[in-house]
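Exercise 3.2. Students should predict the tertiary structure of the chain below and write it as structure tokens, then compare their answer with the key that follows.

Predict this chain's 3D structure.
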Amino acid sequence: MACTTADYTTYEYRNGNKVIDGEGGSKRLVDGVEIWDAGDPPHRYRIMGMLRVSDYDQPYVNLSMLRAIAQQVRRNGGSAAILLSGNGGMRHAGDSLTWHERLGMLQENGYRTQLALMVQYLPEPAEKAPAKPVKATR
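Answer key:
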């Protein structure tokens, strides 16, 4: 039986830690961690780094890969993960996983590899209180 391997790499945007306002999508909750399989979280977040998970192509490969992703997110202080498509882009609504679909790209050596972005949720900006009316003096 093969074991799942997971690598985590931190990186920053060239223009600093860009804040992203997510639009929503579909997610799974795996071991207490949100894993977005299509779209992105409907929160403000920043990308912390890239996860690369590999496992031998077996019937339960999805569960082992998702658990490895969740473990890396928790270990590195992230809030959630966003799965990437085979070409490295964000998965869209039509890409949401079905029960029979396997994660990742099948490699020649019989392993599947899945990439994911590890993200950190950020607090929503505080709304400014309405200005108090100014009393006119006569």
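Discussion points: Residues 91-96 have pLDDT under 50 and may be disordered. The CA atoms of residues 9 and 106 lie 22 Å apart.
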